[in-house]
Amino acid sequence: MTLDEVAALGRAIDAEVAKAVVDQSPTVRLLLVALLSGGHVLLEGPPGTAKTLLAQSFAWTLGLDFGRIQFTPDLMPGDIVGANLFNFQTSAFALTKGPVFCELLLADEINRTPPKTQAALLEAMQERSITLDGRTERLSDRFTVVATQNPIEQQGVYPLPEAQLDRFLFKIGIDYPSEAAERAIVAQYGAAGGVPRAAEQGVAQVADAPALAAAIEAVQGVGLVEEIVGYVVALVRATRVHGDLATGASPRAASALASAARAAAALDGRDYVIPDDVKALAAPMLRHRLILSPAAEIDGRRVDDVVAELIESVEAPR
Q1: N or C: which end of the chain has fewer CB within 10 A?
Q2: Last residue in a domain, options 207, 235, 265
């Protein structure tokens, strides 16, 4: 697959998802970047903003095996990864696979379950495998987690530990739509009954496993010159010395930012990364990895404001 074909595939996916989800093209692009660079995504937004429908529609257009877990306070690790259960007919233990055995997993309201259960996803997200009773089971090479959380509710939630947040490539905010977009949503779904589904909205599959594998392979051909490497490193290292930040980004974040920038360049049909690719991904890449200092929190500072300052202050290559 050529890079022009990768760009065309990205446009086709965006057009199909738009049939079901109104005005979310930037989010669809970030989902594509994450998929092509092997990352996971955390969606944060209030209820009723189509986070679940977005994930379903995205998986449908790509022909991905879709799985969903509704996280609750009583969910156990075995409910995610599965368990070895004794089969009395065969007198042997057999693996009963959990919902994590899929290609795109929607972890709905992930912050509603205790840390022990959240941690069950860590190995799957990092290694694309799970370990049960000392035996390693491989997941799909395309395994991607799209997790959601509600920023409004404070009771009955368990904030994600920093170690797990660092496994997410992007944290994307899903806000309420504009008035024009909300009018379009009501016009499309107001007269319909039941739960919205991608297929019922005419969303078509535009890719399959071989096409996705070819697109991922094409991304590997995107060049990363030394100047861009230096810019990514300088931007990430600047987070560790900023006065308003108590904790900066890790080397994993720097490597992930460079990898994601290559995928973004491929979706634009380019075989090289430019500084604008890095700048466009900096906020969703860094906002969940940075911790404000106590003084900055008292002053009402936001992480996104600090990231914007860093982008302005760190000199980009010309």
Answers
A1: C
A2: 207
